Each structure stands twice: as C-alpha cells, then as structure tokens.
Amino acid sequence: MKMRAQIAGVLLTVIACTGSALLAGQTPADSGRTWWLSGQFNGIYQWHPSFRAAYTGTNSLRPVREDATSRLATFYTGLRLGARTELLLDLESAGGGGISQALGLAGFTNLDVVRNPTLGSAPYVARGLIRYTLPLGAQTEPGTAGPLALLPTLPVRRLSLAVGKLSMADVFDVNSAGSDSHLQFMNWTVDNNGAYDYAADTRGYTFGAVAEYRNRDWAVRWSEAVMPKVANGIDYDWHLSRAHGDNLEVELDRGIVPGHTGAVRLLGYVNHADMGSYREAIDAFVAGRDPVPDITAHRRPGRTKAGVGVNVEQTVGHGLTLFGRAGLNNGGVESFAYTEVDRSLELGTAWTAPPWRRGDRLGVALVSNGLAPDHREYLARGGLGFLLGDGALTYQPERIVEAYYTCTVGWGVSLAFDLQHITHPGYNRDRGPVTVFALRTHLDVPGSP
Questions:
Q1: What are phi and psi of 376, to 5 degrees?
Q2: How big is the CA angle at 388 (ends 383 and 392), to the nearest 5 degrees?
Q3: How far apart are CA 284 and CA 381, in angstroms?
Q4: Do 421 and 413 touch, CB atoms closer than 8 A?
Q5: I want to staple 95 with a disulfide (CB 3.0 to 4.6 A). Which of 44, 121, 314, 429 is the partner?
Q6: Which pLDDT band holds residue 118 (cuts at 50, 70, 90)?
Q7: What CA–CA distance (Å, rounded) separates 403 from 351?
C-alpha cells in the first residue's frame, strides 16, 4: 500500500508538470480558452543542529541533529462557463515529512507538511468548488487569470458566491508579501496569522460557502465552513448545528503612503465544535480525577472559540513591501484546527525587484507567538496538545526570525535558501534556541507572476 501511494504521488507530479508544460501560456485571459490546466511541485529539505534542552517530552522538537524532506505536488484544473461561472477541481499529493514529525513548535518551519504522517502520499482532492460572480454595475476591470481564478474580466462592483471544498487560507488573511510557502516564507505563523484557528482538516482544507462583496477599493467577505471531528483530524463533523466555523473579514485597499498601494484587513471568526476546556482539564488533574491533564477528556459539543486579527501591507517603491499581522483568540478553549497560538504579532518586509537579478525575491520577518494563562498552565502541568507537550514548561513567548532568498532559474523553476532562528521553541525557556536551515526547489509552469 505504501509503495502504491508513493507511485501515485510521483505520477501526479509528472502529470502536473507535463500538463503545465504543454499548456504554458494558454490561459483564459490571453488565449480565449475556457479551461485551465497547470501544476506545481514544491520540495523542501530542512535540517537543524543539536540544541540545548533541559528535558524532552512526547511532543517536543527533538534536540538532536535531524533533517527531513517534504514534497507537495498540485494539479490544477478549471472550467469557465460563460462570463460569470467557474468550476475548480485540484488534486494534490503531499509526501515526506517535517522535522520531529511537525511537533514541538507553535510556529512550525514548513507550511507544506501534513500534520498526520500516517496519511501517506496518495493523491486527494484539495479543492472542488463552483463560484458565480454577479455584476452589480456596468464598469469592468481586467481579471488576473490563475489556477484559482479564471475570469478574464470582472465587474468593478460585484458579489461572488462559492460553494465546495476549499481552503480558508485562500480567501481570508491573504497577504501578498507573506502567504505563499512556494516562493516566499515557509513558517506557519509567518504565512498565516497563528492565532487564526481557521476551520480545516489536517491537510488544511474544508467544505464551506464563501460570499464576497467587492467595490473598487474595499471588500467584505463571509464564510461558513465545516469543522473537523477532533483537533487536527482528517474527518469532518457534519453536525452543523453544533460544529461550524463563522468567518468575516473587511478589507480596505488603500495605502497610507501617498502614491503607493496598500491594504488593511480586519478579521473575526467564531468556531463551534466539540472542543475542550484547558481549565476543566487542569481542575480535573488537580482534584485527582485525571492522572495527567487531558484536554480530550473535557470536550463538549458546541463549545465556541472566537478570535480577531489584523493584516496590513504597504508598498514603498522599488519592489519593497512592508507587512504585518496581529491576532488574538480565546485561549481558554482548545487549539483545534491550525496551531497552538493564542496571540501573535508579526512584522516583515519583502523585496520582489532586487537590481542585481530580475525575478528574484527575498524577505525577512519577525514573529512573536504567545499562549493564554490556562493554555500555558495546562502544558506546564504535563498536558499534551496536538502539537506541543514537553512534559513541563518554563514559559516564554516563542520568537521566530525567518529570512529567505528565492532565485529564479527559468522555465518555471526557482531555488530558495531559508533560515529560521527560533527562541524558546514550544514557548519553553528551558529548550533552545534552535536554527533551522532549508533548501527549496519549486516548479511552476506556467510561472507565477
């Protein structure tokens, strides 16, 4: 079975790359075609040297030298029906793994890694959705055709409705300088707001409905999405009356620097699911009812977890973009779908037009992740989350500095070097710091803009 899954993953990669090469340049925007076919491949090799650790628990980042390689292949297909309707169906294969099996860090170092290594690399449907765009005015503007958007022209004022399997990260908390692990940063809490515990299975996808109203320089989007049955689970909870995710985001597309573009996005979400309470787990342990704190023993259907976030980006000329995020959620309720972060602050910059080589890009970002009091006490008393659990905890915020350089080789191929320095991995002052080095190979035909 494992061999068949590996063969299937390789075949998907070959199909994606071959199909992309055959159809390079033949997109709905520039050839009049009504369909899309392309592919991507992303391979990331990471390693870190040994580091100081006073102790190591079940879910710790291993303090010995280790390395890991991940592979992610995506085959994009799309069909445009008339001027307003799009059908998207994407297949994906995720293989390999991450250092320490993606455990021990709230801001894990590789966004491509599937957090359940037992799933294997057999292809799966990543996205399968229908989207309809309703014009609300006569004015139009050019569309940017790509694997996730096929319309060559768009109404300036419009309402878009999408239903199907999708990723919340494709729609919410998007940032042009820090959302793409294929060409930009790799860390989970750099490419996404770590405190945004968005509805998703362990591969990062869900079923849902998305509505977006957009005018010339502002937009508002809303979504209802299906939650997983258990934290970091692959199966969905279809009891929608008690398990679903509500998402709302308002976007203002105006820069604060005169003559330069920018955007501000304000996000709010509320998850309803069979989630646990850290305080209840701690109290049961202190009272002797549980031998160790166990969040899974104190779940309740319909429990809610809410959070807010802000996402900003600002161009300043010469290809430079400044960006940042801040997020906060109800840290008394179990981290469930994304990562174990209750508050996060991020600042960064990206440069897409260095004068020495056209097409190259580089960036640097700083992130500070934190936990709410009940969450940190739960880990300090020996509790396990779905990512963290050193057996004890001397709490300090987890701080990450990431820098990357992506070099364009040509023919859709790019190579990147990435460095991440992590202080207090897993929020633990008794462990680390650790530096993680990475090499990334990316194939994208036709190439991304």
A1: -70, -35
A2: 50
A3: 12
A4: no
A5: 121
A6: confident
A7: 11
- How many Cα atoms are found within 13 Å in the side-chain-facing hemisphere of 92? 21
Report whether 253 contacts 260 (CB < 8 A): no
Q: Which two tokens stand for residue 289?
A: 């009812």
Residue 112: its H or E element = none
Residues 371/226, Cβ–Cβ less than 8 Å: no
Answer whether residue 401 shows pLDDT above 80.
yes
How many residues appear in the chain? Answer: 449
| The predicted structure's pLDDT at residue 32 | 60
Query: Which residue ranges form the domains of the chain, and what is each CATH number?
Result: 2-445 (2.40.160.10)
Task: Render 171-235 in DSSP notation, one character per residue.
Answer: TSS--TTSS-TTTS---HHHHS-TT---S--TTS-EEEEEEEEE-SSEEEEEEEEPPBSSTT-SS
* pLDDT the model gives residue 264: 97
State yes or no: cis peptide before 446, omega within 30 of 0: yes
The stretch 352-356 carries a mean pLDDT of 91
Cβ 220 vs Cβ 267: under 8 Å: no
Cα–Cα dist 223/449, whole Å: 28
DSSP string, 132-183: EEEE-SS-EEE---BTTB--SEEESSEEEEEEEEE-GGGTSS--TTSS-TTT
The pLDDT of residue 49: 98
CB 334 within 8 A of CB 384: no
- pLDDT digits over 215-233, tens only? 999 999 999 999 999 999 9
Is 416 within 8 Å of 402 (Cβ atoms)?
no
Question: Which amino acid, 334?
Answer: E
Look up residue 218 and give its two tokens.
Answer: 């502002």
Which residue stretches of 324-404 are H helix? 373-380
Closest CA to 74 of 112, 120, 34: 112
Dump pLDDT digits (tens) for 170-209. Answer: 999 999 999 999 999 999 999 999 999 999 999 999 999 9
The two tokens of residue 153 are 């022209």
d(CA 114, CA 312) in angstroms, rounded, equals 28
Token match 């690399």: residue?
121
Contact 369/402 with Cβ under 8 angstroms? Answer: no
